[in-house]
Design goal:
282 residues, 2 domains, two-stranded antiparallel ribbon
């Protein structure tokens, strides 16, 4: 028993997280995602909205560690405006909502205090683009007659990338991918994620979406790039703001945003590919 604990502690130390807690939290999240979709995609959209509101609040609190002070409510309020517009108006209204929210937030910050306006408004617009705008594509994926399969595709892609990058990195990682950004990521982990994600995407496109398998292979490679970049961008933000995690809300993961980073960057790609596939019957 002591040997098992020692092995578990060694894995946790190398991975930088508690493996048991991480698996349990991931299982609960997956149950909430597909449970809500089974009842109604609208409920899923509400859960997404809540998660994004928590995520943008986490980011705003991280901003404060870097000396950027923005009222919580104005960023949090941008989320339901954007997701509601997306649900009722598709991609066109998402773009309009993005323009409406960002311009009004900048005007509000200008009148609130002109000191450090460029820094505060830039941070606010980045937060709105990063979270409610990219998160809007989760709503677009779900607002469809085939919502379960579409969200399932996104979950498989990001889960395969994150899980096998993690496992390959823990087991075989020797060469660091971007040590100046994320000291835990390795080239071996990236190779593991490429293999697993392309296989997973190929199977999903063939068996779940009933489309050409080679489309799955292509989107699998694209998803590795987007998910990895999303993860690295969040790591770069945390390094710049000198914080370890966005929060401690999710044991083994950190904050909501620590869980959403790769999903937010991958969702637009999945949505765009599926729209092209449906339009041209590939």
């Amino acid at each position: 028993m002591d040997d098992i604990h020692a092995i578990n502690d060694a894995i946790n130390k190398r991975a930088g997280r508690n493996l048991g807690s991480s698996i349990l939290v991931s299982a609960i999240i997956i149950a909430l995602v597909f449970g809500s979709l089974a009842v109604s995609p609208a409920i899923f959209a509400v859960l997404v909205t809540i998660a994004l509101m928590i995520g943008i609040r986490e980011l705003n609190h991280a901003y404060r560690a870097g000396g950027v002070v923005i009222p919580d409510w104005i960023l949090v309020a941008s989320v339901p405006i954007t997701t509601c517009a997306t649900w009722f108006g598709d991609i066109s209204l998402l773009a309009i909502a993005m323009a409406f929210v960002t311009t009004n937030v900048m005007v509000y910050l200008m009148f609130l205090d002109p000191v450090d306006f460029v820094k505060r408004s830039t941070a606010a617009v980045f937060a709105i683009f990063y979270i409610p705008f990219l998160g809007g594509f989760l709503v677009l994926l779900a607002h469809h007659e085939n919502s379960v399969a579409r969200i399932f595709t996104l979950v498989v892609l990001t889960s395969c990338n994150d899980t096998f990058a993690y496992l390959s990195g823990v087991l075989f990682g020797r060469h660091y991918l971007a040590p100046h950004i994320s000291p835990k990521k390795t080239w071996e982990g990236l190779i593991g994620s490429i293999v697993a994600t392309t296989i997973g995407a190929t199977l999903v496109f063939h068996f779940a979406l009933h489309r050409n398998w080679w489309l799955g292979t292509m989107i699998g490679l694209m998803a590795v790039a987007t998910a990895t970049c999303g993860d690295l961008i969040e790591s770069a933000m945390k390094r710049d703001l000198r914080i370890k995690d966005m929060s401690t809300l999710l044991p083994g993961h950190g904050g909501i945003l620590d869980r959403l980073d790769s999903i937010l960057f991958t969702a637009p790609t999945v949505w765009a590919v599926l729209e092209l596939v449906n339009r041209y019957q590939l």
